[in-house]
């Protein structure tokens, strides 16, 4: 058997349709062509379904080719009309044993793929990616070895196939998309090929073969060039998305031995990033405690007015969602404190307030990030205020006010709830929670009810990753469906500001078309219980402020109106404001009404003025 025919023989084992339809009547080719075009278009938009279909197709092809071999009509026989004429004399008897065993081998391979491998996204996706790389390398090498330019289009397609295979391995959560697009597109093209073949048999039975060959050659060159250009573009995008990912430097290294007291300042250095006018900054590395009371490291950033005259009050800030990986810590980057990212940031110097912002454990410092885990977030926020007061180059008063937004709003509520018992030395005068993720269970119900929302995958991934790392009674494999596990793991390794987050969002949306990422039964069990217990219910020893935009696209406004109703029913001293047309981030913009309300409310707390709760 020639090298070219041997390669096609192996390829035909996992692609049964081409050789099955090679001699089909025109009407069979036409009907099958229409079906394949329609199916290919559907598969492109449903990656999870595409992978399942591809797994079944490969497995079925192997079974069909094995059965055909048993009947004497396998791929090689169908291609040549009988015994391969390229086989040397005597080869049949020498290969009689393998001829009897190979059909059963291919049947067994097909059954394994259908029953097991094709159903396991974590295994089958990478396996297909590797197969694409190997197949692409063979396609590239053949014209080089044969020294013929006629194989150039195949080499171009081979380079594209290798590129897509590498991208699928570099972006595991995008493997589904890559395979779906390629498999779906190939299905569409094969369907169109069958339709063209059927049309030629009906309308042009006497057309000139040499003219057809020239047109086919031109189409092959154009198609190969287009696919190669697409692959090069995808590679360039991949490189761009991976560029500029932040890295934690040696400042964030955990010392060999941690002090056994929370809130202890281990080290500090000047912050060289961007700051609002009139502020100077420092990075801090300190101790805090996790939800189990164990001392763990954390990091953060402190900003103080450059021209402060005497001790200044301290705002301890809990930041919103930026990710759960170490590299996502705000103090690593140049914009830990930005105008529009924190309320009244541009006014801090004029107001004469300092602000300390915890990164939370596991971000910057090594460890597990307590994403929406109240005890871990709240303690880190309080201990950051303790550590800030140990910086000898600054002068801070004993007055403390807690602010937080989104995830940080959740952390702020917990910090205010814990302050009286955990950190009575801080003199916390109030807690302001802005657009808070106040009720993690209600938020989970909302997100899972709309899995096709753009940020749903990120929120799910961050919560699931943190909870399954933090709580020993939770496991990722029991919480996330098999198709979503790779996506969750990859999303948890990225930060919201990274370009790679777009890949996570697209992959999550693709899977959500076919099934939810979180197992529907998970919320009814321990996972749901853990979410519920991380809702702060008080008591708070100081007044509480809650504000949110009524057009918030991330956290439903109704979640916080219900939450405020719960607090009011418990007699909590809470002032609540909704802002018409305000979105999740616009409420923090310079000049927003929320900014003005938070500043006014904080000034009243610092002045010792009576609070003005506005419960119905």
Produce the secondary structure layout.
Layout (H helix, E strand, L loop, with lengths): L2 H11 L2 H5 L5 H20 L1 H24 L4 H6 L10 H4 L1 H20 L5 H26 L5 H19 L4 H29 L5 H34 L22 E6 L8 E11 L5 E11 L6 E7 L29 H4 L2 E5 L15 H15 L7 E10 L1 H16 L5 E7 L5 H10 L6 H15 L5 H4 L2 H11 L8 H12 L13 H8 L10 E6 L7 H13 L4 E6 L13 H15 L9
Parallel strand pairs: 4-5, 4-6, 6-7, 7-8, 8-9
Antiparallel strand pairs: 1-2, 2-3, 3-5
Helix pairs in contact: 3-4, 3-10, 4-7, 4-10, 8-9, 9-10, 9-11, 13-14, 15-20, 16-18, 18-19
DSSP, total strands: 9
Estimated radius of gyration: 31 Å
- In whole angstroms, how far apart are the ends? 87 Å
Q: Which percent range describes the beta-strand content? A: 5-15%
Classify the helix fraction into a percent range. 40-55%
Instruction: Note poorly predicted spans.
Output: 1-11, 76-95
- The largest sheet has its strands arranged as 1-2-3-5-4-6-7-8-9
Mean model confidence by pLDDT:
82
């Amino acid at each position: 058997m020639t090298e070219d025919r041997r390669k096609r023989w192996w390829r035909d084992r996992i692609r049964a349709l081409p050789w099955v339809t090679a001699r089909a009547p025109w009407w069979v080719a036409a009907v099958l062509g229409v079906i394949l075009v329609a199916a290919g278009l559907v598969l492109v938009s449903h990656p999870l379904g595409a992978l399942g279909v591809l797994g079944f197709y490969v497995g079925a092809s192997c079974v069909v080719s094995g059965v055909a071999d048993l009947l004497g009509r396998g791929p090689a026989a169908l291609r040549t009309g009988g015994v391969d004429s390229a086989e040397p004399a005597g080869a049949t008897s020498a290969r009689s044993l393998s001829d009897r065993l190979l059909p059963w081998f291919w049947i067994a391979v097909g059954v394994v793929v259908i029953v097991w491998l094709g159903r396991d996204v974590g295994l089958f996706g990478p396996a297909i990616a590797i197969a694409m790389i190997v197949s692409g390398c063979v396609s590239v090498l053949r014209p080089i070895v044969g020294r013929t330019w006629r194989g150039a289009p195949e080499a171009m397609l081979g380079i594209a196939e290798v590129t897509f295979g590498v991208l699928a391995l570099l972006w595991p959560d995008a493997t589904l998309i890559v395979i779906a697009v390629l498999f779906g597109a190939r299905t569409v093209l094969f369907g169109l090929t069958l339709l063209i073949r059927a049309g030629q048999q009906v309308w042009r039975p006497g057309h000139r073969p040499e003219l057809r060959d020239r047109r086919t050659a031109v189409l092959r060159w154009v198609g190969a060039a287009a696919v190669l250009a697409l692959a090069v573009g995808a590679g360039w995008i991949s490189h761009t998305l991976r560029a500029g990912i932040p890295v934690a430097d040696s400042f964030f290294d955990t010392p060999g031995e941690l002090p056994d007291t929370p809130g202890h300042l281990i080290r500090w250095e000047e912050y060289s990033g961007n700051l609002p006018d009139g502020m100077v900054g420092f990075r801090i590395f300190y101790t805090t405690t996790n939800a189990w009371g164990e001392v763990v490291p954390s990091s953060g950033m402190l900003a103080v007015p450059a021209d402060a005259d005497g001790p200044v009050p301290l705002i301890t800030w809990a930041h919103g969602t930026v990710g759960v990986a170490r590299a996502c810590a705000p103090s690593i980057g140049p914009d830990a404190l930005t105008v529009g990212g924190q309320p009244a940031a541009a006014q801090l110097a004029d107001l004469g307030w300092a602000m300390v912002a915890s990164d939370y454990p596991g971000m910057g410092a090594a460890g597990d990030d307590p994403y929406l885990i109240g005890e871990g977030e709240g303690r880190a926020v309080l201990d950051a205020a303790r550590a800030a007061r140990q910086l000898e180059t600054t002068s801070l008063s004993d007055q403390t006010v807690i602010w937080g937004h989104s995830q940080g709003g959740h952390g702020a509520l917990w910090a205010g709830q814990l302050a009286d018992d955990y950190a009575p030395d801080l003199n916390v005068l109030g807690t302001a929670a802005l657009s808070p993720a106040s009720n993690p269970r209600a938020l989970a119900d909302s997100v899972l009810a709309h899995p096709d929302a753009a940020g749903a995958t990120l929120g799910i991934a961050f919560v699931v990753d943190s909870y399954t790392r933090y709580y020993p009674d939770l496991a990722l494999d029991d919480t996330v469906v098999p198709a979503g596990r790779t996506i969750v793991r990859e999303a948890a390794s990225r930060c919201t500001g990274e370009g790679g987050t777009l890949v996570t969002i697209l992959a999550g949306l693709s899977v959500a078309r076919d099934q939810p990422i979180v197992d529907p039964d998970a919320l009814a069990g321990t996972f749901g219980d853990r979410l519920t217990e991380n809702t702060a219910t008080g008591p708070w020893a100081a007044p509480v402020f809650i504000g949110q935009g009524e057009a918030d696209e991330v956290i439903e406004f109704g979640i916080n109106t219900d939450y405020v109703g719960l607090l009011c029913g418990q007699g909590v001293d809470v002032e609540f404001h909704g802002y018409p047309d305000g979105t999740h981030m616009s409420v923090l913009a310079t000049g927003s009404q929320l900014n003005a309300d938070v500043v006014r409310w904080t000034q009243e707390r610092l002045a010792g003025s009576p609070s003005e709760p506005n419960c119905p």
